[in-house]
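Section 3.1: Structural characterization of target chains.
Under the original work plan, the team committed to producing a structural model for every single-chain target entering the pipeline before any wet-lab resources were allocated. The record below documents one such target. The sequence was received from the expression subgroup and is listed exactly as submitted; it comprises 94 residues.
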Amino acid sequence: MTYRRCFKAPEEDEFEPAFASIARLKADALIVGTDPFFTSRRERIVALTSGYPIPAIHEWQESSQRAVSSVKAANALGLAVPPTLLTAADKVIE
């Protein structure tokens, strides 16, 4: 059974509480959509992703290194990166 939950953060000051909620729920993964609002704030989103133990997929190529750090951090915390997340990625950096 796949359970999906959508968190909305229409204002930048709502990003931190959304990430905190996602982490508190121990989400298996986070997918950041392609929206001009998020794209223009990608540095903040990538920084938040790196600060929480949540494996994430980003649309932005420049976030790959941070995303890899997030996977490494998740593994270090004993969190498994779901195989479905890895297979859904356009590019996986080992």
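The chain has one domain: 14-88.
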